[in-house]
Amino acid sequence: MHVPDGFIDAPVSAVTGVVAAGAIAVSLRGARRELDERTAPLAGLVAAFIFAVQMLNFPVAAGTSGHLLGGALAAILVGPFTGVLCVSVVLLMQGVLFADGGLTALGVNITDMAIVTTVVSYAVFRGLLAVLPRKRRSVTVASFVAALVSVPAAAVAFTLMYAVGGTTDVSIGKVASAMIGVHVLIGVGEAVITALTVGAVVAVRPDLVHGARGLRQRLRLRVNGELVDAPAPAAPVAARGSRRALWLTGLVTSLVLAGFVSFYASADPDGLEKVAHDQGIDEKAEKHASADSPLAEYGVRDVTNARLSGGLAGVIGVGVTVVAGSTVFWAVRRRRDTGVSPASTANPSA
User: 15-37 burial by CB neighbour count: b if 16+ within 10 A, else e?
Assistant: First the structure.
């Protein structure tokens, strides 16, 4: 759903740029409360994983494909504020390096794909957890529904922005029905990917999943025919090693997905591209400012082998995104650590 330059006029693009900048500023402050020494490295990995999975377009209808947006996945794994930052980092890397999503439309894309999907999905997720049994399985179920809802919500948001600032004279009713219809189907794929990923991390390290905090179940033992709560362990065994193993596993998975599996992704246009072509929204689309980038269109210039070119571009993208994301989240976490006042350190009860 990356919006190119020329779809939305300059005033609306400017307004969404201000909205995006404000949301990022708020998220930087909010992420300071969400990130710690355990979750900060995971946040950079989540950004890289979203980049990798977004390269895997899957077919959803005749001649149409879809890909992960990632807002729900990021919000549930690392928190809503950090989730906005994760998706924003991905969109920035894609726009600057890979000519995917217009640079003048960066505010539109961040508002739509980072802010709307994260806010909507996390609100749905928390609402469902409030009524579902407090079990780990509930986290997976709520993740599925939240991700499913977030994609058509982003389609509605784009339609509203196009209604205000669209550059072509197209019936908004037709745009809305086409966008929402195809993105409901894409939402199913988003929901499956999100639920599987969240479920896998919850099964291994539930303490690292932001959305699973407070849902940890106590081990129960049968004593004299009755079930009683077992004493809680003082600390996880080999926690640091398991975090490192999880991070390495996630990084290797991202590299394999972007560097190899992406070659087999659907070549059909995604939902927005298909609707834009069918409805005439793309009549005033502009050439991307980074169209001459060595990595434009997810290929490495001068590498003639398509498989090798796409694979190298994917690996480079994962590497750049994990470095950029980790740098941002390390800085946010460091700001949190240095922001502790001496008085609060000296008086823990304050």
Answer: bbbeebeebbeebbebbbebbee
Q: Is the pLDDT of residue 348 over 50?
A: no
At residue 63, φ and ψ (nearest 5 deg) are 75, 15
Q: Are 12 and 165 in contact (CB under 8 A)?
A: yes
Buried b (16+ CB within 10 A) or exposed e, 242-271: ebeebbeebbebbbbbbbebbeebbebbbb
Phi and psi for 293 in degrees, rounded to 5?
A: -65, 145
* 209 membership: H or E segment, kind and range: none
How open is the CA angle 295-301-303, to the nearest 5 degrees?
125
Angle CA 39–124–81, to nearest 5: 35
Q: CB-based burial of residue 173 (10 Å sphere; 0-12 exposed, 13-18 middle, 19+ buried)? A: exposed
Q: What is the pLDDT of residue 337?
A: 64
Strands (E), 135-270: 220-223, 226-229
What is the pTM for the complete model shown? 0.89
pLDDT band at 36 (very low <50, low <70, confident <90, very high): confident
- Looking at every residue in the chain, the average pLDDT score rounds to 90
Identify the structural domains of the chain with CATH numbers, from first to last. 10-212+239-341 (1.10.1760.20)
More confident residue, 350 or 205: 205
Q: Coil, helix or strand for 221? A: strand
Residue 294 dihedral angles phi and psi, to the nearest 5°: -60, -15
Q: 169: helix, coil or strand?
A: coil
- The answer to whether residue 228 scores a pLDDT higher than 70 is no
Report whether 120 contacts 153 (CB < 8 A). Answer: yes
